[in-house]
Amino acid sequence: MDTDTTEQSNREVVPPRLHLRPVRPMESGIGLPYAPENWPKPGDTWRWKVGPRITGKGTFLDRYLYPPKHLPGLSNTETLRKGTAFRSRLSLERYIRLAFPDADVRKFFASFSWAVPSTDGMKRSILPVYTSDEDPMDANVSDIMVCKAGNDKCGSLMPPPSETEPMPCDICCSEPSFCTDCSCILCCKSISVEHEGYSYVKCEAVASEGRVCGHVAHINCALRAYMAGTVGGSIGLDAEYYCRRCDARKDLVPHVNRFLEICKTVEYQGDVEKILNLGICVLRGSQRVDAKELLNCIESTVIKLKCGTSLEDLWNDDTPTIWSDFSESGEGKDNDDAVQSLQDVTPIEPMPFNHEAEMHKLEEEIREVLKALREAQESEYQIAEVRLHAQKECLGDLYRQLEEEKSELSRRVSGSEADSLMTNVLKRLDQIRKEVTKLKEMEEVAKGFGRTPKGILEEYFHLTIEE
């Protein structure tokens, strides 16, 4: 009798044969095969969702289970975060044992598959169906993780600590080959960790649910997109970085402050100049005192390199430099000391002309001029389009009236009424000739508003031209 009961219990926990279809990163769904159904009551359905990270076995490292809202104790469950999602098998198991002490936990987990295969996985083998003697999610975190972008040096290969866990993202991170940790949010290409990762910036703003944004961007891409450096207008950046994903701002002065220290470990002068020139682009135009001081120091270092100073002599120079004071000021040193150090190293003789800096400034001015010209031309085009089409409609109405008057005249062979109709036809023809002449004059704008006579612009386009 006991043997029959045991066999019956074993048969009950054997999971159904599930077809585990591969899913895309950030995909979600309802019920089987990746979420339970009809539990704890018939009709209860759970939702599931996967994240962007993939293990070496081709399954998702991040997967979430959303229980039915009516289940007891969800609001008091410490393992749940905002959004009522279970993010680990352990947290879900603890909840079931607490809220449903009589439930068979192993049978519950055997009813669906916790492991979710990815369409972008490195290995696409069919996952096994677990029996009652197997744990469907035993030490999944120990699996070898694979970066979605194929970067073997990606930071996502090391599980982040809970306090710095990146926020879920279903916008850019839904792309098959985009990785939050190593793909630039602006160009989608991988970042480089060469020279301590000076060339990129990471947004560490707390976005939601206590998680950081975590998206990265090449500084050069951000500069070209007017999302880094000093930018006016509605963005209003001052030596800062603007994250397109979460709209947070990041101060770039501490980031650039590391550049000179990084350069001391670089052996190739070309790389040193490249790093320092990037710092100059970030700091140029800033109105902040600390940014101006750091910019002067970096520009002085670049000038020494261009004047033939070797890297060995550059870093062995006994002259005090401002960047060391910047590093120490972050640990409690007063800014007044940094300002005084800058005054001490400021040369009395005129600074040499910085050719590259001036050329970059001219390039920015020309870009702004061309942008304004394009906007002005688009505005002029719209004005001309409206006025010319209005004149065309006017002529169309006159032609229709002329046809009607000529048709009426053909039915009146004689009499005073016929004479009156003839007079109207002649007047209409004269009016049409004047409007055609007006249209020809308006077509002078084909040469451009700058070469169109002032009288035409004022009379036909209602533009007031100042002397």
Can you walk me through this structure?
With 467 residues, the protein is mainly α. It has four domains: 128 residues, no CATH class; 85 residues, no CATH class; 101 residues, no CATH class; 92 residues. It is built from 15 helices and twelve strands. The longest helix is centred in the last third of the chain and has 56 residues. It comes from Brassica rapa subsp. trilocularis. This is Oberon PHD finger domain-containing protein. Keywords: Coiled coil, Metal-binding, Nucleus, Zinc, Zinc-finger.
Please outline the helices and strands.
Elements (H helix, E strand, L loop, with lengths): L1 H12 L14 E3 L16 E4 L3 E2 L7 E4 L22 H11 L5 H6 L34 E2 L47 H4 L2 E3 L3 E3 L2 E2 L3 E3 H6 L3 E4 L5 E6 L6 E3 L1 H5 L1 H5 L5 H15 L5 H18 L4 H5 L6 H8 L5 H11 L9 H56 L5 H27 L11 H7 L7
Antiparallel strand pairs: 1-2, 2-4, 3-5, 6-9, 7-8, 10-11, 11-12
- Distance from N terminus to C terminus (CA atoms, Å) equals 110 Å
Spans of at least 5 consecutive residues whose pLDDT stays below 50 are: 1-15, 122-144, 159-163, 318-353
Oligomeric form of this entry?
A: single chain
Strand content: 5-15%
SSE arrangement, N to C = HEEEEHHEHEEEEHEEEHHHHHHHHHH
- How much is the radius of gyration in Å? 36 Å
| Widest sheet, order of strands | 1-2-4
Q: Determine the mean pLDDT.
A: 75
Number of β-strand runs = 12
Shape: flat
Q: Number of domains in the coordinates?
A: 4
What composes the largest sheet?
A: 3 strands, antiparallel
